[in-house]
UniProtKB/TrEMBL annotation:
InterPro entries in the record: AAA+_ATPase, ABC_carbohydrate_import_ATPase, ABC_transporter-like_ATP-bd, ABC_transporter-like_CS, P-loop_NTPase
Pfam family, one: ABC_tran
UniProt KW keywords: ATP-binding, Nucleotide-binding
UniProt name for this protein: ATP-binding cassette domain-containing protein
Ranges for domain ABC transporter: 6-247
Organism phylogeny: Bacteria, Pseudomonadati, Pseudomonadota, Alphaproteobacteria, Rhodobacterales
PANTHER family: CARBOHYDRATE TRANSPORT ATP-BINDING PROTEIN MG119-RELATED (PTHR43790), SUGAR ABC TRANSPORTER ATP-BINDING PROTEIN (PTHR43790:SF8)
Organism of this sequence: Rubellimicrobium aerolatum
GO molecular function annotation: ATP binding
């Protein structure tokens, strides 16, 4: 059986005349952590949007968990086991942590006609278990998201992704807006995900973070994958050379 969880072949996205993503061949192994790097506008987020069903691709093929997929929307990708943590977090400000973790997937105690009574105790217990598993520390689960710091919000979003994504987590610059301590907390969660065998794609501009956390680095430039580098075979200077275009690989596929 193949241990490739995600594969793209010739993945391409045009916005009118803008060729945002061109012919991306990519593979991710089960349990592997891969970083996607590249300058602003290089096509990183576009790539992720085609995989997560946020947009429909122009051409190319995607396989996920052993079958060819073309998700019509983000919900379909989530149902298949892909969870994405984007910068603009989809959290509900006025709800507490368990309610956010189970947003759209609430545990129901019983239904009264059009009304449902939520099983708050079960949701709280499941939340505590999820946070423990992902090493997320949140002092008061009853606090509404509105009263939390940026770092705590990010942790809730990641814990939610890790709770429900059985197969692949994608993070798009998860620490871009965070302070030093909060960044360290998010990075610890990512390490725990690795220990738990979760597959991860991390978009990041932070070289230190990337070298700390991932196994492999993919570099995008002007919509194309220009490098596929195993961490131990490269360094920051080398990666920057690919990002700026000073260097390029002759890639048949950004494979393993
Ligand atoms: N909806 C859209 N309509 C038109 N052009 C778009 C659209 N979304 C992205 N683009 C263009 O596609 C290219 C790739 O953008 P993308 O957001 O994927 O880059 P990125 O590598 O994620 O950059 P950043 O690091 O700044 O987030 C850019 O030239 C961008 O302007």
């Amino acid at each position: 059986m193949s241990d490739i969880i995600l594969r793209t072949e010739g993945l391409t996205k045009h916005y009118g005349g803008v060729h945002a993503l061109v012919d991306a061949d990519f593979e991710l192994r089960q349990g592997e952590h891969v970083a996607i790097m590249g300058d602003n506008g290089a096509g990183k987020s576009t790539f992720v949007r085609q995989i997560t069903g946020v947009e429909r691709r122009t051409s190319g093929k995607v396989w996920f968990d052993g079958r060819e997929v073309d998700f019509p929307g983000p919900l379909h990708a989530r149902e298949a086991g892909i969870e994405a943590v984007f910068q603009n977090l989809a959290l509900a400000d006025d709800l507490d942590v368990p309610s956010n973790l189970f947003l759209g997937r609430e545990k129901i105690l019983f239904n009264l006609g059009p009304f449902s009574i939520l099983d708050r105790k079960a949701m709280r217990q499941a939340t505590e278990a999820a946070l423990k598993r992902t090493a997320v520390k949140i002092p008061n689960l009853g606090n509404t998201i509105r009263h939390m710091s940026g770092g705590q919000r990010q942790c809730v979003a990641i814990a939610r992704a890790a709770t429900f994504a059985s197969k692949l987590i994608i993070m798009d610059e998860p620490t871009a807006a965070l302070g030093v301590q909060e960044t360290a907390q998010v990075e610890n969660i990512v390490r725990t995900l690795k220990d738990n065998g979760e597959s991860l794609i991390l978009i990041s501009h932070n070289m230190r973070q990337v070298f700390d956390l991932v196994d492999r680095i993919i570099v995008f430039r002007r919509g194309r994958i220009v490098a596929n580098l195993r961490k131990e075979e490269t360094d920051g200077q080398d990666v920057v050379a690919y990002i700026t275009g000073a260097k390029s690989q002759n890639l048949a596929a950004a494979a393993l």
